Amino acid sequence: MERRFILFVTLSILVVLGWTQLWQTLNPPPPAEKPPAVAQRENAPGPKPGDKRAAAAEPKKVATAAEKSPLPATIKAAPKPAAGTEKPEKAFPDQWAAIGSVDPKSPFRMLVTLTNRGAAVERIELSSPKYRDLEDRSGYLGHLGKEEDRLGDGCRVDVVGAGTPAAEAGLRPGDIIKQINQTPVISGRMLNDVLHRLRPGQPVTLVVARGGRTLTLGPVALGRRPLEVIRPEPNDAGTKDPLSFLTTLYQVGDQTLPGEEKSPSEHRELPGVAMRDVPWELLSADAEQATFRKELPRYALEVIKTYRLEKVPPKDIGNADCKAYHLVLDISISNTGKPGSAVRKVAYQLDGPTGLPIEGYWYANKVARSWGAGIRDVVVSFNGKTPTMVDCPTIADDKTAPAWQGEPLTYIGVDAQYFSVVMIPQVPNPQEVWFAQSQPLRVGKVDPNWKKRTDTSCRLVSVPRELKPGGEPLKHSFVVFAGPKRPELLAQYGLDSLVYYGWFDWIARYFLVVILDFFYTVFRNYGIAIILLTVLVRGALFHFSRKQALSTLKMAELQPEIKRIQEKYKGNAKARTEAQQELFRKHNYNPLGGCLVVFVQLPIFVALYNSLRVDVELRQAPLITDAIRWCSNLAAPDMLFDWSSFMPDLIVHSPSMFGLGPYLNVLPLVTIGLFLWQQKKMMPPPADEQAAMQQKVMKYMMIFMGIMFFKVPSGLCIYFIASTLWGIGERHFLPKAAQPGAAPAPAGPPQPGLWSRLTKAGNGQAGRGKNRKRSRRQP
Fold first, then answer.
1. Structural domain ending residue among the three candidates 466, 500, 534
2. What is the pTM of this model?
3. Do 653 and 717 belong to one domain?
4. Are 181 and 292 part of one and the same domain?
5. In whole angstroms, what is the distance from residue 520 CA to residue 320 CA?
6. Burial environment of residue 431 by CB neighbours within 10 A (0 to 12, 13 to 18, 19 or more)
7. 221: CATH
8. Which of 96, 383, 671, 697 could be joined to 159 by an S-S link, Cβ 3.0–4.6 Å?
9. Among the ranges 55-64, 263-272, 716-725, 759-768, which has the highest mean pLDDT value?
10. What's the DSSP call for residue 61?
11. Domain with 295 in it: what CATH number?
């Protein structure tokens, strides 16, 4: 990396930091004396007043829910049922159902664990071996239901997912695990502790109690933990955040829930309605679908939720972009009253997904269309337009704008760095309005140091509809995409706008990613692909790199003359500038002649950095092998070893610039070392004390660069290392810089000195070829 490139990158970083500070200065938080609704509107992401282009893509919002909403704003007294007409609610035990499979050879792309408590999705695990948990590398047996302690003499199995090692071992719901590998098990927590000490591939033998008998199951090899797109997320209170797709009634008759609720953890429900945190009736469950029912006798209503998992056709088992990364969620609400009984005006409330991945939150920076994106942001699209993103920190600070009102919803969900879970209403007419309100939600507690990892969700409130006794029910259906952000896959769901590469988007999307994928198909290693990409880029720029090197050496020759001019015209800046320009013209030197390489490489550098942060194919791509932790993910730091046990919290856990994370990364240190080596080889010897001081400052700047580069993706470090080694190799074939005091080469015909030798070295082969052609044409 040449001196100008290092200086340019340093200045670019400083410009970005300065722009960040300027942005915060120009967009301060709202004054405390302003009304909350006004403050929310002013600070909400989206178009600002007068921005016509942004306003065209942004759904119309209103200041309060009561101005245009057809929904009443307060809870009124619940109607009393007629004597003898109210049936008691049935109580059901906690039950689980598992649909799909984590077996990559199965016709399913995911394993979905459902619970009848709230008829919710507890977790979604992807089956492809390309999507594994990058942080938890302990042995995986499978999720067996409740994770907290339940028994004093074993761990009860509540659910067994297809394709898991637990299913392979023969575990069944109702079994009680007594022992694993000669270690007694007295609780579910103890079983998890034992598994946490084991590694994938290790065999385990289980002793279980089943129907009064004691059985030995196994041995069975533990697996690698699959990625959980949705999972129960624990919080600081020792409990878990609300599960995904919880449903309740928002309106019955003239009763509605209040609109001030910011978080679904409050569990507000109408009088006589208990749906969010109570067990529903599990009507049926098989490998593909599960159906839950909740009866509300007080209002003579029945709510049915059905989850159906898409299967992959046999011919598309190997097709990674087959449209099968989704659930179908059906909601049906019926009036079960007797003929002639009251008509019910009903609206339901549906919450979205929770517990999306936060992997790499300490180093990851998501690329998004809005400033300040978090790890789990809410995306929403109306009328098929470009999605609006509400960033996670804004949701964490409760600074979101009022709910969107009465717009035709295209989709809404939560967007993580490499995965998304999005609800797509299956509206027959795209202009039909199903939902009176839609809004982002803060689900979990807020860590003030890491607001960007706050658990977020979204909420929909349906348009009220009158239901007659025994009449047609209210039926809504959703396609719930839950999978990787592969552009070809997302396009089949109309979600391709979720992939965004930021600056130089077209270079990353249509150049870098295509070339990297091509090299990967040949060599099956993205590390080699990045090295070959570097060779391709530097080879294409070789002509300009040589000119830059020549320019640097020529500048070294001219340094004594420049010094004399500076001393001669010390008090006359205009004369000094004219004299220097005359010197440059005399020796045919252009001070900007070597900058082209820097400006050409900068888009490549930015586009590659964004590709590593966006392209899910580069996630979990190892440099050597995935069997070892070091450099097993080119989209993350290399993580040589964990130093969190002895390093201070300021370094391990701080989100500041000096928070280096819990791992020592060696590739950034190698990169900075090569930068210093190349700087020493490329920079000419200092002609005076000022030049010597400048070189020392550049060396000290490398310390700052090392801190800035410490958490960058290892794939980017590989690019820098390969590019720097290429530059050092180029420099090896060029003569050394002239020593201070050497006379510059005179203008005119090339002389047999340094300048002419460099010129001939670069053009000699071409010149000899031309001479041979000319001699053949002579008679």
1. 500
2. 0.80
3. yes
4. no
5. 16
6. exposed
7. 2.30.42.10
8. 96
9. 716-725
10. B
11. 2.70.98
Q: Which residues pair with 640 in a beta bridge?
A: none
C-alpha angle 662-667-672 in degrees, rounded to nearest 5? 110
Task: With both helix axes pointing from N to C terminus, report the angle between 596-614 and 714-732 in degrees, rounded to the nearest 10.
Answer: 150
Query: What is the distance between the alpha carbons of residues 765 and 756, in angstroms, rounded to a whole number?
Result: 15
Contact 383, 427 (CB under 8 A): no
* Same-domain pairing of 590 and 695: yes
Domain enclosing residue 560, as ranges: 508-732
φ, ψ of residue 506 in degrees (nearest 5)? -70, -35
Question: What is the chain's Cα-based Rg?
Answer: 32
Please indicate, yes or no, if residue 761 is contained in any of the structural domains.
no
pLDDT on residue 59: 40
Q: What is the spatial distance between Cα 167 and Cα 423, in angstroms, rounded to a whole number?
A: 30
- Could you please report the per-residue DSSP string of 548-600? HHHHHHHHHHHHHHHHHHHHHTTT-HHHHHHHHHHHHHHTT--TTTT-HHHHH
Other C-beta atoms lying within 10 Å of the C-beta of residue 545: 22
Structure tokens at 555: 């500048």
CA 482/CA 459 separation, integer angstroms? 17
Burial class (CB in 10 A: 0-12, 13-18, 19+), 489: buried
Same domain assignment for residues 494 and 514 = no
**Token output for 775:** 């001699």
Structure confidence by residue, pLDDT tens digits, 678-687: 877 766 666 5
The Cα 308–Cα 300 span in angstroms is: 27
DSSP-derived letter for residue 415 is: E
Average pLDDT over residues 125-149: 89
Contact predicate 455/428, CB 8 Å? no
What residue type is 41 in one-letter code?
R
pLDDT confidence of residue 2 = 44
Residue 417: partners with Cβ closer than 8 Å, 6 or more residues away = 357, 359, 360, 364, 366, 375, 613, 614
Could you give the CA distance from residue 762 to residue 726 in angstroms, rounded to a whole number? 17
Same-domain check for residues 413 and 558: no
On whether residue 768 sits in a domain, the answer given is no
Cβ atoms of residues 392 and 416 within 8 Å: no
Say whether both 660 and 557 belong to one domain: yes
Q: CA-CA distance, 349 to 268, in Å (whole number)?
A: 11
**For residues 702 and 671, is the Cβ–Cβ distance under 8 A?**
no
The residue out of 500, 525, 557 marking a domain boundary is 500
d(Cα 88, Cα 101) in Å, to the nearest integer?
Answer: 38
Distance CA 645, CA 692 (A): 41
* Residue 484 shares a structural domain with residue 518: no
Contacting residues for 104 by C-beta, under 8 A, at least 6 apart: 127, 128, 129
Token pair for 92 = 């059901």
Read off φ and ψ for residue 181, nearest 5 degrees: 50, 55
Burial class (CB in 10 A: 0-12, 13-18, 19+), 148: exposed
Q: What is the DSSP string of 287-350?
A: SSEEEEEEEETTTTEEEEEEEEEPPPPGGGTT-TT-S-SEEEEEEEEEE-PPTTS--EEEEEEE
DSSP 8-state class, residue 189:
H
Within a domain: residue 25? no
Q: Do 128 and 320 contact (CB within 8 A), yes or no?
A: yes
* Residues 454, 534 within the same domain: no
In angstroms, rounded to a whole number, what is the distance separating the alpha carbons of residues 365 and 362? 9
Q: Please state the rounded mean pLDDT for residues 275-281.
A: 94
What is 3-23 written as a DSSP string? HHHHHHHHHHHHHHHHHHHHH
Omega cis (within 30) before 779: no
Torsion of CA 135, 137, 142, 145, to 10 degrees: -50
474 within a domain of the structure (yes/no): yes
pLDDT of 559 > 50? The answer is: yes
Total domains present in the chain: 3
